[in-house]
Design goal:
mainly alpha, elongated, binds protoporphyrin IX containing FE
Length: about 170
């Protein structure tokens, strides 16, 4: 297996390079925890939010507030993932770039980031406008946003799972 050979080469040739690769991987996984963790917690908060939205709008406003800092943390996690990912690619001289799992992973990561920026952030902003009373037909607007956010969370969490699966098994 190419990956095992690579690790052996790194190990015998230069112990420091291997340590650097492992340090980057630790940071890579830290970014994963921050990004996927925040997304998952947001998903659970939104579930509670929609339950409250139908019964007590005032209270639901407070629940929504709990997600106010999420996009910043998701951004930090994503940046950490991408920079450490690029760092690992540089150290390994891009060998992963030629492998099937990595090409699929890279495409999925692009979709994940685009879905986050376009769908997640877009619908989140729309919802905050609805809650601030800046739109008419609140109930109809909210129904549309709810459906789109549900699809958004399902897609993000499924993509995270597939990307982790590909990264661990490294199919070639
Ligand atoms: C949502 C985004 C990402 C997730 C969830 C993710 C997840 C992971 C996981 C779980 C591993 C560990 C695999 C293992 O040790 O068995 C890994 C390794 C790796 N990732 Fe990512 N990753 C992401 C983005 C990226 C990006 C953007 C790049 C490159 C630009 C990248 C490059 C790599 C490389 C090269 C490895 C292999 C490191 C090694 O095993 O030595 N990743 N990734």
């Amino acid at each position: 297996m190419i990956f095992t050979e690579l690790l052996f080469t790194l190990f015998y040739k230069n112990m420091n390079t291997l340590t650097l690769l492992q340090a980057l991987l630790v940071l890579h996984l830290t970014g994963l925890i921050i990004m996927a963790g925040t997304t998952f917690v947001d998903f659970t908060i939104f579930k509670t939010f929609w339950k409250q939205f139908d019964t007590d709008r005032e209270k639901s406003q407070g629940i929504l507030q709990a997600t106010a800092k999420s996009s910043r943390w998701i951004g930090i996690g994503a940046a950490l993932l991408v920079f450490t990912g690029i760092g690992m690619m540089a150290i390994t001289h891009g060998v992963f770039g030629e492998q099937v799992w990595f090409r699929i992973k890279f495409g999925l990561v692009i979709i994940l980031i685009l879905n986050g920026i376009l769908m997640g952030r877009g619908q989140g902003t729309k919802l905050r406008k609805v809650m601030a009373g800046e739109v008419v037909n609140i109930s109809i607007q909210a129904e549309g946003i709810k459906a789109k956010l549900n699809l958004f969370f399902f897609t993000q969490l499924a993509l995270f799972l597939i990307v982790i699966f590909l990264s661990v098994f490294k199919f070639n």
